[in-house]
Amino acid sequence: MDTGRAAILDPEPVAPGHLAERPTRAVLAGSVAAAVALGFSELVASLGASLPSLVVGVGGWFIDRSPGDVTRAAIETLGTANKTVLIWTIVVVTITLGGVVGRVWWQRRSRAATAFGVTAIVGGLASVGEPGATAVGAAVVALVAAASGVGTYLLLWSAADGRLGLEPARTIESPTDPHASRRSFLGFAGAGAAFAGLSAAGGRYALGRSPTEVAREAIVLPTLPAGSTSPLPDTEPGIDGLSPLYTPNDDFFRIDTALRVPQVDLDGWSMTIDGMVENPLTLTFDDLLAMDLVESDVTLACVSNQVGGNLVGNARWLGVPLAELLERVGVDPGAEQVVGHSVDGFTAGFPLDVLDDGRPALVAVGMNGEPLPLRHGFPARLVVSGLFGYVSATKWLSRIELAPWEGVNGYWIPRGWSKEGPVHTQTRIDVPADRTTVAPGRIAVAGVAWAPSRGVAQVEMRVDDGPWTEVELSEEIGDHAWRQWWTDWNAEEGTHILEIRSTDGTGETQTETIRPPAPSGATGWHRIRVRVEA
Ligand SMILES: Nc1nc2c(c(=O)[nH]1)N[C@H]1C(S)=C(S)[C@@H](COP(=O)(O)O)O[C@H]1N2
Ligand SMILES: [Mo]
Predict the structure, then answer these.
(1) pTM of the full predicted structure?
(2) pLDDT given at position 64
(3) Are both 51 and 194 inside the same structural domain?
């Protein structure tokens, strides 16, 4: 009766009550099969840039289609804080669906197999648009997922039935010992789950050591001629918990819509400057390195940063001045907007005339003395002082387009964020932390203040609505970088409110008006509550 291919999948007489007796095994078989499909395809996806991760593809599909106000209300951090949640939701939902399919079609394995196949195809279709992915790559990964999922399911089906295993097969004369078949099923299911977990972890690890990362580490950035770079100031006041003047790359906040960091192959990469220009220009990475590079200390802030939040960092960026590149291409007089395009489809645009004041605006290739980390835009990104990242700081840059202002909008603009994104003057208290308890006596209160492109001239603190008093400031390293501030506070027992504010280089004091991040960046004074108790 069971002959040929059909026998593998077609419904066949099963022991009466196969389903009724084994509901847990059916669910487990389906879930483990789904987990194997996800985990193993994840491992395969790590083998090449053209092979997308299906989970990431489905996640990206959701991010791209979620309306701006949903994104805004639900995440407010431009799609990043919830990335992990999104990925895990997709994993959990898929595994749950696997369990449902496994249970419902336990006696109709061809349907279960079809369901696995369809799910894999959906994942493959969603992943075609992933950066670097090709249609063939997506098909290969989907096929791997479908085959490993179906294979695992059939294997577990057989094991559940006692047909497969370390125990003697069931015969009419000697029915399987139910405990033995249970043991071997659980053995296979456990092995499947472990395999799924290990291959997913292996895939993640392999991505961390991707060929792109290896290539990046081999890059030697040019050293600037002596005198063209200022030494790093050595004024760290040595206060525990105070942000360092330069944020180490590994601690630098990361915000982007990419679920998987784009892997840009240097050999195939170039960036083009075109649009409203006289002579469009295409540059390779080596072309950029061969130009006159400059270093700028610029504080980068995200529009989603809350007052007192940590979506802000300061770095020494190495790159080619945008002004130089624009001079080379010859900008049309009618151009009003500079639009950065990323290899991943992201775009960010800002008014051309913000560059008139000569502020640092770089096509950056280096960050704190290293090639740009992959997460921060390798091989090149834009950094413009005084503008939030979402309108200016395009990572994994592929193109700079000169455009009119009207009718051309960056990624976040139709999603409800304002088109212009100047960074507001902000001041943060790092220590003591909000809602903590400290011992009475003299304690250090410290933090950072930024007003990139205007500079921070003065920082003041007040306690319990008392008078504003000036605090100490770190050496000024330019109008574009944040300044550390600190003061000694004589903490007396009780509960106290500390508030902080800055005045920028134009003499304007940071507004007290409290505004949320959307649509144009949070404002207000950072305020913390501290208990002082012996
Ligand atoms: N390609 C790309 N570039 C991007 C983004 C993105 O989503 N994709 N996000 C922008 C935003 S909103 C910010 S705040 C900065 C953050 O840069 P960082 O991740 O290096 O800190 O990158 C900008 N550049
Ligand atoms: Mo951002």
Answers:
(1) 0.79
(2) 78
(3) yes
